[in-house]
Specification:
This protein is of the alpha+beta class. It has one domain. The chain has 4 helices and 5 strands; from the N terminus they run αββββαααβ. The strands form 2 sheets. Strands 2-3-4 form a 3-stranded antiparallel β-sheet. β3 and β4 form a beta hairpin. α3 packs across α4. The longest helix has 17 residues.
Length: about 100
């Protein structure tokens, strides 16, 4: 799947099974046991991660962030959310689902 497909409004994403998540204050640390890689999420990333417990599109996630931060430029919020999805997908932390 290329970057355009990853952030398509029709692709639903969810957390991959088998990951270990450690919560520390507002942050989260995700360990992928397949490669022992550790991925850090700040408070906003942790909130988005929680939403990905159920299938969501990048657009749906961006809309949620835009509602939470109405003063932030919408285009920036949507672009940052799509980048976040792409990063998680490339690291094997989320997967596309039907």
């Amino acid at each position: 799947m290329n970057g355009n497909d990853m952030t398509s409004a029709t692709v639903n994403w969810r957390q991959c099974d088998g990951l270990s998540v450690t919560l520390v204050d507002d942050d989260a640390f995700i360990v992928n046991p397949k490669n022992d890689a550790i991925f850090h999420l700040n408070a906003l990333g942790r909130a988005l991660w929680a939403l990905l417990a159920h299938p969501q599109t990048a657009t749906e996630l961006g809309e949620t962030v835009a509602e939470a931060f109405p003063d932030a430029p919408r285009a920036t919020v949507m672009a940052d959310t799509k980048t976040f999805i792409e990063t998680l997908a490339k690291r094997g932390l989320i997967e596309a689902v039907d």
